[in-house]
Structure formats: structure tokens, C-alpha cells
Predict the structure.
Amino acid sequence: MSRRDDEVAAVAAVAAKFVESELVAHREEFERQHQVDRDVWRKAGELGLLCCSIPEQYGGGGGTFAHDLTVFEAQARLGETGWGNGVHSGIVAHARGPRRRRVRHHRRQDVHLQRAAGSGS
């Protein structure tokens, strides 16, 4: 196996244990509440199970989509449907997160370069 495959396998093991102990074990409680507890999200973040494929420089795990899919797969294997990480890490974080920050950062850099060159206001 490659180093990347080893990383994905390690994420899979952590994700399976997390889903079992933090989600499946509390399923009835979360269903009554109509949401998972915030602590679940915090623990997932501490374990590196959120935004696995977002670059590290933007606060993500620095992995690939394979890392995200491994977390989603662990959830699906155990039939856990209440935790919205697939939407959060797989869609929203990409649509609203790093790319927007990069665009804003580059726009600010462009403005500074223009000002430094005397061509901007």
C-alpha cells in the first residue's frame, strides 16, 4: 500500500470507531432532539474527521476526497443518517470555504499590487 492508502485506512479506522461510539450509541437521543449534539461536531473536528479534503492552509485536513469519502462510508456502513457531515464536509465547506477565502485573498493582493505600482487608487 502507498502512504496515501495507509492514511485513508487510518482515517477509516478512526471514523468507524467514532461513528459507532459517538453517533450510533446516541442515535435515539439525537433523533428525539432532531439533531446531534455540538460536542459530536467538536470531537469529529479534533479527530480530523471534518473537511478532510480542504487544504491545511485553510484549516482542513489536507487530504483528498478519498479521505472525506472514507468518513462518509463509515457512517453509511452503520446506517447512521442523522449526522450531516456529508453535506458539511463534502459540499458546503468547498462551496463556501477555502475557495472564497482564496478569491478574497487574491483580490486583496491585486489591489495592493495595483496601489504599489501606482495604477490603483
